[in-house]
């Protein structure tokens, strides 16, 4: 007897890793003659999600951002209608390669938080699997080389296929619970959710290579890029999924390391000192560390908005544009390529020789 009548896969993906994992699961369902559906949640109206067929297995796939699922997936799960289906949680995270060893990424609270929300909605967890796909976060580290990307792609395709065969035939799979120590990353995950993601949203800009084609604006899954002064402008909606960087045909989108470092230095060395002096002088000294943290974070983000807008305006001057571009690591060849996942059905001979 079949374990499930149908499999429904909900995924979010910036650069294609999670889309690949979702389609590998669907492929296995197809080979097992199971009805299956694949939904990109960026294309679903998250305010009116259709309740799923009660007999189907639900699979959620998303990258990990800042030791948690990104807000788009978290909010989707929060708004998901109640039900009694069995669910499978999968994430893709930052895999790297040392020799033949795939170093695992860090899931943080992604599984713990979403499993708890789904449990409260009546669902029961059937399996969890983190998948160490090539890291796409080239804002903070150089891009991986082609051989590493191919190797990780192929190894994970095999792993996800075996996993999908198990869970679609009704088995449980909870080995990832061994990584329960990841929960210790909760404070950083919360910091990323409330502050970090807004900081990274304001790290992108378009250089003078931009020809205003609008491809990035349309490619963004959360419509976070708008045009200001006829040039792309990143709003706080940005989830730093990295899709726009890989979509720009002119390679005009950069991470502005220079202006972000300059802002952080000016803020922590000058603005904060001035703020406390003024506050202590005219109001009262702030003693409580929590109140301090909230105030400092709010001030940091408010002034970042202003700073980003000023830089955006100043970039019309060639000298400013050049300084910003030349202090962005992503502008340099040695930093590596923009990341875009391989097509889900790409096959490679994975052995040491193909790595050379
Ligand atoms: C903003 C951002 C934050 C990330 N945070 C984490 C993280 O906390 N842990 C991790 O293992 N990988 C992290 N990564 C790596 C991605 O989760 C990983 O490359 C994922 O496979 C990308 O999936 P996608 O191509 O479907 O967007 C992060 C990537 C980005 C862009
Ligand atoms: S895709 Fe590139 S060239 Fe086109 S508008 Fe965006 S940044 Fe400019
Ligand atoms: S602006 Fe770029 S990085 Fe941000 S969510 Fe949109 S596509 Fe992703």
Task: Report on this structure.
This protein is of the alpha/beta class and 356 residues long. The strands form 3 sheets. Strands 1, 2, 3, 4, 5 and 6 form a 6-stranded mixed sheet that branches. The N and C termini lie far apart (47 Å). The radius of gyration is 22 Å and the shape is globular. Residues 351-356 have low confidence and may be disordered. The relative contact order is 0.14. The protein has helices at residues 17-31, 71-79, 110-120, 146-168, 186-201, 215-219, 243-247, 257-282, 289-314, 318-326, 352-355; strands spanning 6-11, 35-40, 56-63, 86-98, 101-103, 124-134, 204-206, 225-228, 231-234, 253-255. A hairpin with a 2-residue loop joins strand 4 and strand 5. Helix 1 crosses helix 4 (146-168) and helix 8 packs across helix 9 (289-314). The chain has 11 helices and 10 strands. It folds into 2 domains: 6-183, Flavodoxin domain (Rossmann fold, 3-Layer(aba) Sandwich); 190-335, Alpha-Beta Plaits (2-Layer Sandwich).
* Beta-strand residue fraction: 15-25%
Overall average residue pLDDT: 92
CATH topology of the largest domain, which one?
Answer: Rossmann fold
CATH secondary-structure class of the largest domain: Alpha Beta
Report Rg: 22 Å
User: Helix and strand succession?
Assistant: EHEEHEEHEHHEHEEHEHHHH
Distinct ligand kinds: flavin mononucleotide, iron/sulfur cluster
The CATH superfamily label of the largest domain reads Flavodoxin domain
Structural class: alpha/beta
Query: Could you say which overall geometry the principal axes of the C-alpha atoms support?
Result: globular
Q: Please give the CATH architecture of the largest domain.
A: 3-Layer(aba) Sandwich
- Low-pLDDT parts are 351-356
Helix content: 40-55%
């Amino acid at each position: 007897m079949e374990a499930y009548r149908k499999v429904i896969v909900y995924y979010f993906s910036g650069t294609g890793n999670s889309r690949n994992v979702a389609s590998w699961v669907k492929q296995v369902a197809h080979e097992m003659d199971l009805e299956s559906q694949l939904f990109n949640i960026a294309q679903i109206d998250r305010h009116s999600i259709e309740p799923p067929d009660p007999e189907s297995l639900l699979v959620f796939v998303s990258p990990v951002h800042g030791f948690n699922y990104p807000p788009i997936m978290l909010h989707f799960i929060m708004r998901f209608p109640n039900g009694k289906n069995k669910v499978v949680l999968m994430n893709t995270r930052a895999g790297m390669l040392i020799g033949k060893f795939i170093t695992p990424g860090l899931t943080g609270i992604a599984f713990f938080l979403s499993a708890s929300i789904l449990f409260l909605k009546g669902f029961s967890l059937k399996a969890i699997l983190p998948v160490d796909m090539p890291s796409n976060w080239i804002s903070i580290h150089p891009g991986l080389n082609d051989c590493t990307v191919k190797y990780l792609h192929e190894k994970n395709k095999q792993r996800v296929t075996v996993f999908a065969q198990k869970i679609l035939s009704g088995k449980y799979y909870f080995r990832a619970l061994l990584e329960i120590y990841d929960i210790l990353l909760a404070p950083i995950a919360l910091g990323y959710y409330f502050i970090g993601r807004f900081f990274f949203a304001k790290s992108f800009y378009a250089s003078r290579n931009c020809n205003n084609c609008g491809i990035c604006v349309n490619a963004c899954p959360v419509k976070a890029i708008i045009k200001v002064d006829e040039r792309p402008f990143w709003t706080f909606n940005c989830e730093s999924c990295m899709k726009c960087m890989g979509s720009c045909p002119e390679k005009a989108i950069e991470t502005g390391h220079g202006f972000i470092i300059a802002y952080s230095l000016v803020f922590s060395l000058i603005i904060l000192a001035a703020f406390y002096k003024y506050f202590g002088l005219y109001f009262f000294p702030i003693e409580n560390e929590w109140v301090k943290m909230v105030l400092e974070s709010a001030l940091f983000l408010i002034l970042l908005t202003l700073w980003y807008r000023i830089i955006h305006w100043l970039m019309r001057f060639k000298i400013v544009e050049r300084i910003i571009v030349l202090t962005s690591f992503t502008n340099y060849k040695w930093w590596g390529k923009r990341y875009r996942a391989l097509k889900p059905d790409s096959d490679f001979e994975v052995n040491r020789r193909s790595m050379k």
